[in-house]
Design brief:
alpha/beta; 11 helices; 342 residues; 14% strand
């Protein structure tokens, strides 16, 4: 009789829709469990990070595919019995999780690759594993002149081909805040951009969920949108006519970070996992098609498709204070859905 290992069992259970019934925590000395975003992130970390971790450290990783807000909710609900060892989070959920005391502190001395990460990207309770760069994407064959900044999106000929999406994602929230600023608003005052959105919605080519935007662009239903370089590189790899523009007020950047869950069973292996994820070997692979992740290891030679020539550029880009944004964001999401999506 053939014995099935844990990974085979999970794969089979997943195919039957039963994966959620199986325990996901790894407790063996050479293993850990890490939360990971579904989709490209899960594919990338299964395909690149997991084999490198096994090869270089002899550690197996089991992944729990969850969006950021679901990761935080799952750990909160576990009441001190962590369901996994590592988070992967964007800045909004990371700020909320840190405020709730859900992270172990990070000791950079336990990361052999710490010196290869730009200053400021290893924080007291998290390690940056990927940078995102956000701006405007457009179809160069549809516009004689590209847009210059956020305000242009609300003018002809751009607004008629614009895809609008709301505050559900980090990139969407950050983009709309920057739009608000050019119309006189701020991170605490989005009234000006809601006024513009109400005027634009009847003209815009589409209003849809963030995940729908790449498909709408690829199908030609929209020709301009706000998005990240990851999405632009992915669409280019599919042969789509698309270019990325840094708005005249500056491109936006934010970081995705890895964190060790407070009370994690496998802290030592969690450090090995994080160290592997930020290694030059892994980061160099993750920036290639089909993953297109902006690396944060200084030894990695950047590919041209990511529209960034040096990691030093990140320090000049627009950033946001998510401790200010978080208390307002749920109301903004609800308002966008009621007033703009309808």
């Amino acid at each position: 009789m053939t014995q099935m290992n844990r990974r085979d069992l999970l794969a089979g259970a997943g195919a039957l829709g039963l994966a959620s019934l199986l325990p996901l925590r790894a407790s063996a000395s050479g293993s850990l469990t890490a939360a990971i975003y579904p989709g490209t992130w899960e594919e990338a970390y299964r395909g690149v990070v997991a084999p490198a971790l096994k090869k270089n450290a002899g550690v197996d990783v089991a992944f729990d595919a969850l969006f950021a807000v679901d990761q935080v909710a799952k750990v909160r609900a576990a009441r001190g019995v962590p369901p996994f060892d590592c988070f992967v989070l964007d800045p909004g959920p990371a700020a909320a999780a840190q405020a709730a005391g859900l992270f172990e502190p990070i000791d950079p001395a336990k990361l052999t690759n710490a010196a290869k990460v730009p200053a400021g990207l290893i924080k007291s309770h998290g390690v940056t594993c990927n940078a995102q760069v956000v701006g405007i994407a457009y179809n160069p064959k549809k516009f004689a002149t590209p847009p210059k900044g956020w305000a242009d999106l609300f003018k002809s000929p751009y607004v008629e081909r614009l895809g609008l999406t709301g505050f559900q994602t980090t990139f969407g929230t950050a983009s709309i805040i920057e739009m608000a600023k050019v119309f006189g608003g701020s991170a605490t005052n989005v009234e000006p951009i809601f006024a513009e959105l109400k005027k634009a919605v009847s003209k815009a080519a589409a209003v849809a969920a963030p995940a729908a935007m790449p498909g709408l662009f690829q199908q030609g239903q929209i020709d301009i949108m706000y998005t990240n370089t990851n999405t632009v590189a992915t669409l280019k790899g599919r042969g789509v006519d698309i270019e990325f523009i840094k708005p005249e007020t500056g491109a936006i950047t934010f970081q995705t970070t890895l964190h060790i869950v407070k009370g994690a069973d496998n802290v030592a292996n969690a450090y090995k996992y994080i160290d592997t994820a930020i290694s030059s070997e892994v980061q160099a692979e993750l920036q290639k098609q089909p993953y297109n992740m902006v690396p944060i290891n200084k030894d990695v030679k950047l590919v041209e498709t990511l529209d960034i020539k040096s990691l030093d550029e990140l320090a000049t880009m627009v950033t946001h204070d998510w401790t200010v944004i978080n208390p307002q964001r749920a109301a903004w999401i609800e308002r966008f859905n009621k007033e703009i999506t309808k």
